[in-house]
Amino acid sequence: MIRVAVIDYGSGNLASASRALSRAADLAGLATAVTVTADPAEVARADRIVLPGQGAFADCARGLAARPGLWPAIDMATEAGTPFLGICVGMQLMAERGLEHQLTRGFGWIKGEISRLEAPGLRLPHMGWNALEFVPNTHPLLEGLWPGDHAYFVHSYALSGGDPHQALAISDYGGRVVAMVAAGNRAGTQFHVEKSQEVGIRILMNFLRWVP
Questions:
Q1: Which end of the chain is more exposed for a tag (fewer CB within 10 A), N or C?
Q2: Residue 29, by phi and psi: left (phi above 0), alpha (psi -120 to 50) or beta?
Q3: Domain boundaries, the chain
């Protein structure tokens, strides 16, 4: 049984993410227990950790820090090797810092900061379906995906100044947008996997099978 902890810190599409994970597990034929939790002990016991997020980086970081012991529990569990997937702002929190509203510390697992999208002449937030292009690699999370596959984005801020070696996928919205990252056992998607239909389900299936 794969125990998946979906982190509840008062933000994010918890129900949608949980349903998508359960569907991915069923399609993959994996016995999986998906639990929405803010309990650090539950996080420590989990075989997979998923951090959804929506809204502003600073608000999400405050919400996470306000749950006693939750931030360090996620940090320690992933440091010990538990696979992690951040979704949208959940991916952004993997960065060193965010600049939305104020300077806010992130986990610092990936290089770079979260800054406002540079998209001259385009509407913000960036909302809708965009094609993915994959940085040449054979990462297990990309199995079954093809260049040009589309994912669903909703965001006004994105990773900048990152390490190119940590980017798995990029998209374009008035310029290069980092769409997916990985550093060891920690990965994230700027797009909403739970809203990205077959592409999102495929990534979640890959995540549940992933052995970093």
A1: N
A2: left
A3: 2-209
Per-residue pLDDT tens digits for 29-42:
999 999 999 999 99
Contact 11, 41 (CB under 8 A): no
Closest CA to 183 of 116, 111, 117, 100: 111
In which band, very low, low, confident or very high, does the pLDDT at 12 lie, cut at 50, 70 and 90?
A: low
Dump pLDDT digits (tens) for 179-203. 999 999 999 999 999 999 999 999 9
Q: Which residues pair with 15 in a beta bridge?
A: none
Q: What is the percent of the chain with per-residue pLDDT over 70, rounded to a whole number? A: 99
List the one residue out of 63, 84, 56 whose CA is nearest residue 155: 56
Token pair, residue 207, equals 């995540």
Q: Do 142 and 168 contact (CB within 8 A), yes or no?
A: yes
- 3-class state of residue 51 by DSSP: strand
Residue in this structure with the two tokens 């260049």, named with its chain if needed? 147
CATH class of 2-209: alpha beta
Distance CA 61, CA 81 (A): 22
Nearest 5°: CA angle at 148, between 123 and 110? 70
Closest to 189 in 3D by CA, of 86, 61, 106: 86
Q: β-strands 176-183, 186-189: how paired?
A: antiparallel
Q: Among residues 7, 10, 20, which one has the least CA distance to residue 207? A: 20
Query: Rounded distance, CA 75 to CA 178, Å?
Result: 23
Interatomic CA distance for residues 135 and 137, integer angstroms: 6
